Amino acid sequence: MKKYNFSAGPAVLPREVIEKAASNVLNYNGSGFSILEVSHRSKDVVADMDNAIALVKELFGLGDEFEVLFLQGGASTQFFQVPMNLLNENETAGYVNTGAWSKKAIKEAKAFGKVNVVASSEDTNYSYIPKAYDIPSDLKYLHITTNNTIFGTQFQELPETNVPLIADMSSDIFSRPIDASKFDLIYAGAQKNMGPAGVTLVIVRKSALGTVSRYMPAMLDYKTHIENVSMYNTPPVFAMHVSMLTLEWIKSQGGLTAMAASNEAKAKILYDELDRNSLFYGHAVKEDRSLMNVTFRLHNEEFEAEFLDRCKKEGLDGLKGHRSVGGFRASIYNALEAEGIQKLADLMRAFEAEKA
Ligand SMILES: *Cc1c(COP(=O)(O)O)cnc(C)c1O
C-alpha cells in the first residue's frame, strides 16, 4: 500500500530527490565514492554548495545585497544567533508572539538586547495571527514566525512597517513567493520543507551586519560564514546536497508561484472537508489558516484514537496533533501529493457517515 507522510518534521521529501540522494550515497556523481566520504573541499561538493546558494537566490529573486548561508544548529540556534549578530544591548527588537517557536526566539533575544513583544495571540492558544498593532519605528528589527507549525496559523500578509523584517520561515520556506525587499534576514531549519535535518538556511542582507559591538565567536559570526562560503569548518555536506536537490525539484516544478498554486489547491481539499464535516473542527481561525500545517480536532474526543488508527490503516501517517493543541495535525508540505490529502478527506467523510 502506498504511504503518505503527514509528519511535521523531519518531513516528506520528493521521491525523486530521495532516489537521487540515495544514488549519490552509493556513488557520488560517478566518482566511485559515496558523498558521505568525500572532502567538503572537493570540486563536486563545492559546486553543489555554489548551486544550492544560486538556487536559493534565483527562487527568491534575491540580488547581490543578500548572502545565503548553510549552517548548523537548527532554527533553534538562530533564535540566539540573530540577536547576537544584529542587536546591541541598548537597542530594542520587536517580536510578534504567534506560538511556541516565537516564544523561544523571544526568550533568547532577551539575553542580547531589549525585546518589545508588539503583539501576541497567546490569549487563544495561538489560534490567530495578530493584525492591528503598533510597531514603533525605532525598532532594530521586527521578528515574525511566518508559519506556526504547531498551531497551524500562517501570516497571509507581512506586517506593514518600514522596520526591517526578520523571519523564522522553517515550516513554509519555498512554499510561496516572498517580497525579499522587506527582509533583513530569513532563516529556516531544512527539515520541514527543504531537506533532511542537520542544515539551516540563513539569508541575510549584507548591510544589516557589522553594527554590533560585542565579541563574536567565529562560528557564530555570520561574517565568518559569508567570507568562507559556508565552508569555514566542515559543513553538513549530505544535508546541504539533499537540500540542493529539493531546490532543483522546486525549480523544475515551476518555482514558487507553482508551489503556491499547488499548496493552495492541496490545502483547499482538506479545509473544505473540515468545514463541511460535522465531526471535526479546525484550531486556527479561517483567515489565518496555514497552507502547510492543518490543525483540527474531533468534537467527540473519544473517537480520536480510533480515527488515528484508521488513518494508519489507510497508509496516512504522522497525523497525531502536537500535545499543546491536541487532536490532529496534517502537515502538507510542498512534496506531499494531493492524492494523499484527498484520501484523508475521504476518510473523514466516511468516518462521519459512521459516527454522526
Ligand atoms: C521546527 C521549527 C523550529 C525548530 O527547528 P530546529 O531546526 O529543530 O531547531 C523553529 N521554528 C519553526 C517555525 C519550526 O517549525
Brief descriptors of the model:
three-stranded antiparallel β-sheet; Aspartate Aminotransferase, domain 1; binds pyridoxal-5'-phosphate; Aspartate Aminotransferase, domain 2; 14 strands; seven-stranded mixed β-sheet; alpha/beta; 9 helices
Structure in a nutshell:
This protein is an alpha/beta fold.
Q: In words, what does this structure look like?
A:
There is one protein chain. It is built from 9 helices and 14 strands. The protein is globular, with a radius of gyration of 21 Å. Helix 1 (15-26) runs antiparallel to helix 6 and helix 7 packs parallel to helix 9 (338-355). The two termini are 28 Å apart. The chain has 2 domains: 4-12 and 254-355, Alpha-Beta Complex (Aspartate Aminotransferase, domain 1), CATH 3.90.1150.10; 15-252, Aspartate Aminotransferase, domain 2. It has helices spanning 15-26, 43-60, 74-86, 100-109, 222-227, 237-252, 255-276, 304-313, 338-355; strands spanning 4-5, 66-71, 92-97, 114-120, 142-145, 147-148, 153-154, 165-168, 183-189, 200-205, 280-282, 293-298, 316-317, 328-331. The strands form 4 sheets. It has a 7-stranded mixed beta sheet with strand order 2-10-9-8-5-3-4, with helices on both faces. A 3-stranded antiparallel beta sheet has the order 11-12-14, covered by helices on one side. It has a two-stranded parallel ribbon with strand order 1-13. By secondary structure, it is α/β, with parallel strands linked by helices. Helix 4 (100-109) links the parallel strand 3 and strand 4 (114-120). Residues 9, 74-76, 101, 145, 149, 168, 170-171, 189, 192 line the site of pyridoxal-5'-phosphate. Pyridoxal-5'-phosphate (PLP) binds next to helix 3.
